[in-house]
Amino acid sequence: MIRFGYADTPLGQVHYAESGVRTGPPLILLHQTPRSWDEFREAIPRLAAGRHVIAPDTPGFGASARITEHSIENYAAGILGLLDAMGVDEFDLAGHHTGGVVAVEACARAPKRVRRLVLSSTPYIDEAARKRRASRPAIDAVAERPDGSHLTELWRRRAAFYPGGRSDLLTRFVRDALRVWPDVEHGHAAVSAYRMEERIGLIACPVLCVGASADPYAFPELGPLTEHIPHAETAVIEGGGVPLEFQAAEFARLTAAFLGRT
C-alpha cells in the first residue's frame, strides 16, 4: 500500500509517497523533471518489500509547494529538509535524470547521511555541458495558445521518448507537466546551470550508475559520469528509455540488489 503525506520544510510543504516497513534507513526516490512521485508508481511496490521507501515531489513540482528560485541546490535543500522533518538521519538514495543530479547535490551536502547511491540516467554537468545546453532548444516549454494546440505540441514533443502503445505513460507525464505549467522547463534549466564538477567529488558512499540504452539524452553520459566517480559501479538496462515507468522492474531489481549488499 502506498501512503501519502506532507512535511513542513524551509521551502514550504513537501508532498511525499511512502510504502513498506518503517524500520531501518529508508530508500529515497527522486524523480525527473517535470514529473512527481508518480514516476516511481510501478517501482515502489517492488522496492518496498522489507524496507521503507519514500518518494517525494521535489519542491516546485507535483503537489509540493511552488518555489520562486529553481536550482539543484534548492531542490536538494528541500529534500533534506523533508527528511529532517520526518526524523530521518541515514538513508539510501536513488535519482532518475534530474533526480540523479539532485541526489549528487544531496550527497555533497550530507555525505555522512547517505549510505548508498543509485544514479539512474544521470547526466554529468561541467563547463562544456553547460555551454552545450545553453544553445539546446527547450524540451517541454511550448507557447500557450487559445485553441489549446500547445497541449498537442507538448504531447508530440515527448511521444518520441515513450514506447509505442503506451499512451497511458505519456498521459501521466502530461498530467505532471500541466500541474506546474508554465514553469515546466525550470528543472531542465536548473540542471543546465549546476556546477556538478565542483560537487561530485564529495560523494563518499558506494555508487551504482545505471544507464538505459535507448535513452538518447542520458545514455551517452554514463561514461563521463562514472569517470568522475572512480568507485562507482555501472549497469545497463538494455532497451530502457527516458521514462522510468517503462523499465521499473529492471530498475527495481538492480537497485534492490545493490542496496542489499553488505
TrEMBL record:
Keyword field: Hydrolase
Keyword Hydrolase: yes
UniProt cross-references to InterPro entries, sorted A to Z: AB_hydrolase_1, AB_hydrolase_fold, AB_hydrolase_sf
Positions of the AB hydrolase-1 domain: 25-183
Any one GO MF annotation of this record: hydrolase activity
Name of the protein in question: Alpha/beta hydrolase
